[in-house]
Design goal:
about 35% helix, globular, 5-stranded mixed beta barrel, alpha/beta
């Protein structure tokens, strides 16, 4: 009697407790294979440590990795609740190309009709970016910045050949800077969007699974 192979796992990495809560509250139905939502802790070093540690487990040897959570938009006209699908993540150590960007854009538009989806490079920082730093990063070609995505994806590809992607929700932007995430409309809007993205992530995972060896 033949048995169907178990699909490779999907590892979804986020940094903050509020991001983890939003994802836990999302619709987990429709996943094609095991799904783990990892809270890495804030900052690139914490992300690198956490992702490297979990991918060392043979269970995750061929896991697809998707970095998500909140980000700061860099381009004028961005608004809290907008989505960013990275074409690549980058930091001073290099760039990591993302897989299935067009598919993610399509699925996010279907899952969250009416939400603006931006695509482009997502850059990493080791601190919260404000003021003139936004313009400096925008000049490099990046459209958004966060502290963990670049470290997460770099750690993922160092650990083996696997599909990787990054999807972030804009929580503040040049015209909408926030001081505290949970106390203003922008933070609430971003939380609701992040709570709704899992179906798009599962569809991406279903379509980019590597052939089993």
């Amino acid at each position: 009697m033949s048995t169907q192979p178990v699909p490779d796992p999907l590892l979804i990495a986020c940094a903050l407790g509020i991001e983890h809560l939003a994802l836990r509250m999302g619709d987990r139905g429709g996943a094609d294979g095991p799904v783990t939502v990892l809270r890495t802790g804030m900052g690139p070093r914490a992300a690198e440590r956490s992702v490297t540690r979990i991918l060392a487990d043979p269970v995750f040897a061929e896991a697809a990795v998707l970095a998500t959570g909140f980000c700061a938009g860099l381009a004028p006209g961005m608004h809290p609740g907008d989505l960013v699908v990275a074409e690549e993540t980058r930091d001073p150590r290099g760039a990591v190309p993302c897989v299935g960007t067009e598919l993610l854009v399509k699925e996010l538009a279907r899952t969250l009709p009416g939400r603006t989806v931006h695509t482009g490079p997502l850059t990493g920082s080791d601190h919260v970016v404000r003021g003139h730093e936004r313009a400096d990063l925008l000049a490099t070609g990046a459209i958004a910045v966060d502290m963990e995505s670049a470290a997460t994806l770099l750690s993922a590809v160092r650990g083996g050949v696997r599909p990787v992607a990054a999807v972030r929700v804009v929580v503040d932007a040049p015209e909408h800077e926030l001081v505290r995430i949970g106390t203003v409309h922008g933070g609430i809007s971003a939380f609701r969007v992040l709570r709704s993205v899992l179906p798009a992530f599962f569809e991406w995972h279903r379509n980019v699974l590597l052939p089993r060896r």
